[in-house]
Amino acid sequence: MRGTRQGRCGAAGLLLGVLLAAGCASGEGADGGGDSTRAGSSVPTTPAPTTPAATTSAPTTPAAARPLVHVTVTGGIAGVRNDLLVRDDGTYTTSTKTGPKGSGRMTPAELAELRRALEKADFARLPGEATGSPVADGFTYRITYAGHTVTTDETTRLPALRDVFAALPED
What we know:
By secondary structure, the chain is α+β, with helices and mostly antiparallel strands. 29% of the residues lie in helices and 26% in strands. It has a 7-stranded mixed sheet with strand order 4-3-2-1-6-7-5, with no helix packed on it. A hairpin with a 2-residue loop joins strand 3 and strand 4 (99-105). 12% of the residues are buried.
C-alpha cells in the first residue's frame, strides 16, 4: 500500500509542478490577467517595484521582432514535425516535435535574398493547398508569409516556392 500512496503523491506533485509552470509561463499573475491593463479598464496597473537582485537575475531583451515567415515540415517515416520561424530582423528559431532545436541570425545578404524570394513567390496568388495524391511517408510543407498560408508536398512542390526553400536557413 505504501508504494501506491507514494506513486499517487509523486504523480500529484508532478501534475502540480506542471500546472504551476504553465501558469508562470503564460505570464498570468494572481489576478488572472496576463497584460498590463485590467479587463474593462484602460488604466494600466502599476508594476511592483523590483529589487536590484531581481533586476540582475533576468537579462533584459530588446522588443521581439515580428515573424517574417514560418515553415512547418511534417511527415516521413518517423513522423517528424520541424518548425522554422524567421523574424523580420533575420533571427530564426528551429524546433522539432520534441522541443526547441536551435537558433541563429541570417546575414543581411541572406535576409535580403529571402525577402526577394518571398516577394517573387507572390503568396497572395498561390493556392492555399497544392498537394497531390498522398504518398506513404511523404513530407508536407506549410509556409506562412504576409498573412497567406500555402500547404504543399514533395509531389506537388510549387515551382514559385523553389527560391524560397533555397533561401531559408539550414539549421
